[in-house]
Specification:
There is one protein chain. This protein is of the alpha/beta class. It has three domains: 3-283, TIM Barrel (Alpha-Beta Barrel); 300-391, no CATH class; 394-520, 2-Layer Sandwich (Double Stranded RNA Binding Domain). 41% of the residues lie in helices and 21% in strands. The longest helix is centred in the last third of the chain and has 21 residues, at 489-509. The two termini are 56 Å apart. The structure holds 3-methyl-2-oxobutanoic acid (KIV) and zinc ion.
Length: 521
């Protein structure tokens, strides 16, 4: 379904990655990173960017102010509690925006009133009126939020909403602050409040859902069904505790299921993947592999049946195209569930064109390998086919390695290699044991390849873990990854380096005659 075919009501997207998102423990962003995120949100077509909490620190104030000055299209909001100091600071921060908003909030639930605010309902009501009135004197666009709305008795919530609108609030946000609501309850709350407050049509209602029970996106959409027309969300769903509703899920649910959700948003989905990567990079929060829309497996297919279907027609197993969210293409992950159809396609993609018999042999070897390895990388498949074509053993093999490491320095390595049957030995020093080993390899096997990657992973747990090292080398536009495993990380390192050099030698000779290849020429 295209967005246009069902488009009716516009739902505003209010992004709070820079405020609620930044409140995630450990997700702090620098000033420049916040500007970069804000620029992308504005380009994507987000309607409101909540840029921060100006009273929280001078840094927050400066970031909100700078974002207010530079954003071209979106409204820029600053958060404030109900106190005048907060509100004035937020007003000052968003003053320079083409469209600024003060977002003020106070908790309304009995639990918060009793244990946190230690105030009566009447006192809170007075504060609602006072805070919204103060904010409205500074800015035309005022959002008022009833924190913990979903645990607030409806009668009191209605009185607060009515008072906030009378005092000048233009948006009313009813958050599920603790992620407690179910979709039915959340929808009903909006319906009842909108029906029970006489001036409800003078404000836009907003949803703000946390994901403590994994219901944030479903609750947000239910709130929209109940009449809300603004959704507060964050890129990658980051936010307090289990996070907020994820912007990418909301945007793509509305876009993909226009038949069931007859709304539109102004967000251009092709930026979603870029935004996810940017936010993950600046917060150092990894995106879970199976995260909807932007996880690395969201468009990856491993099972043979799925891969076969995908190769026949992508609509068999994909409800949206990867390109539509900015992912360049679907990936067929090769593993033990992959079938021969996908294997043949993968070989084609890697530049091999094998005859029937060679293909059947290679497929068998691939299945054997896939039984032993979780994921079979492109390089493994290349090695599997190259080894067969070359019918040669590695040109360079490890014979012995002794390393002197520790605090005394300089670290040194004595290395013996078998190069095409000849044993050669040398010693080299380096800045650390790995550097010393790699210098020794370079002495014995002179080459121009550039080291692109050196990565150590523990395959098992404990201090006796098997180490798996990956070494990436590139030379004249070709790049390879060699892997080596050993309980000794330094031995695994030299094995990985030699594996990469051997692969480069094979790569350089692919297409040449087998006797040349065996010699690595
Ligand atoms: O979750 C919440 O209630 C909030 C408010 C400040 C809007 O983030
Ligand atoms: Zn929140």
């Amino acid at each position: 379904m295209t967005q246009a075919s069902h488009n009716t009501d516009k739902v505003l997207i209010f992004d709070t990655t820079l405020r609620d998102g930044e409140q995630s423990p450990g997700a702090t962003m620098t000033f420049d990173e916040k500007l970069e995120v804000a620029d992308l949100l504005d380009t994507m077509g987000v309607d409101i960017i909540e840029a921060g909490f100006p009273i929280a620190s001078d840094g927050d104030f400066e970031a909100v102010q700078a974002i207010a000055r530079r954003v071209k299209h979106a409204t820029v909001a600053g958060l404030a509690r109900a106190g005048f100091k907060d509100i004035d600071r937020a007003g000052e921060a968003v003053k320079a925006a083409q469209r600024g908003r003060i977002h003020t909030f106070i908790a309304t639930s009995p639990i918060h009133l009793k244990f946190q605010l230690m105030k009566s309902e009447e006192e809170v009501l007075d504060l609602v009126v006072a805070s919204v009135t103060r904010a409205r004197n500074l800015c035309e666009d005022i959002e008022w939020s009833a924190m913990d709305a979903t645990r607030t008795p409806l009668d009191f919530l209605k009185r607060c909403v009515d008072a906030a609108i009378k005092a000048g609030a233009t948006t009313i946000n009813l958050p599920d602050t603790v992620g407690y609501a179910t979709p039915e309850e959340y929808q009903a709350m909006f319906e009842q409040i909108r029906m029970g407050v006489s001036n409800a049509d003078r404000a836009i209602f907003s949803v703000h859902c946390h994901n403590d029970l994994g219901l944030a996106a479903a609750n947000s959409l239910a709130g929209v069904r109940g009449g809300a027309r603004q959704i507060e969300c964050t890129i990658n769903g980051i936010g307090e505790r289990a996070g907020n509703a994820a912007l990418e899920e909301i945007v793509m649910a509305i876009r993909t299921r226009g038949d069931a959700l007859p709304y539109i948003t102004g967000v251009e989905p092709k930026y979603l993947n870029r935004a996810a990567k940017l936010v993950s990079a600046v917060t150092s929060f990894p995106v879970q592999y199976n995260k909807a829309i932007i996880g690395r497996n969201a468009f990856a297919h491993e099972s043979g049946i799925h891969q076969d279907g995908m190769l026949k027609n992508a609509s068999t197993y994909e409800i949206m195209t990867p390109e539509s969210v900015g992912v360049s293409k679907t990936s067929l992950v090769m593993g033990k569930h992959s079938g021969s159809h996908a294997f043949k396609e993968k070989l084609k993609e890697l530049g091999y064109d094998l005859g029937e018999n060679a293909l059947a042999d290679a497929f068998k070897r691939f299945k054997d390998l896939a039984d032993r390895k979780k994921v079979v990388y492109d390089e493994d498949i290349e090695a599997l086919v190259d080894n067969e074509i070359v019918s040669a053993h590695d040109r360079v093999k490890l014979v012995a390695l002794t390393v002197i490491a520790g605090t005394m320095g300089p670290q040194s390595a004595t290395l013996t290699l078998d190069i095409e049957g000849n044993h050669v030995t040398c010693q080299a020093t380096g800045n650390g044991p790995v550097d010393a080993i790699f210098n020794a390899v370079a002495k014995l096997v002179p080459h121009q390849a550039k080291l692109d990657l050196y990565q150590v992973h523990a395959v098992t747990e404990g201090t006796d873990a098997q180490a798996e090292v990956s070494v990436g080398l590139s030379e004249e536009g070709k790049s390879v990854i060699g892997r080596g495993a050993d309980p000794d990380t330094l031995v695994a390192s030299v094995r990985a380096y030699l594996a990469a050099l051997n692969k480069l030698a094979v790569r350089n000779t692919r297409g040449a005659k087998p006797d040349q290849m065996a010699a690595g020429r």
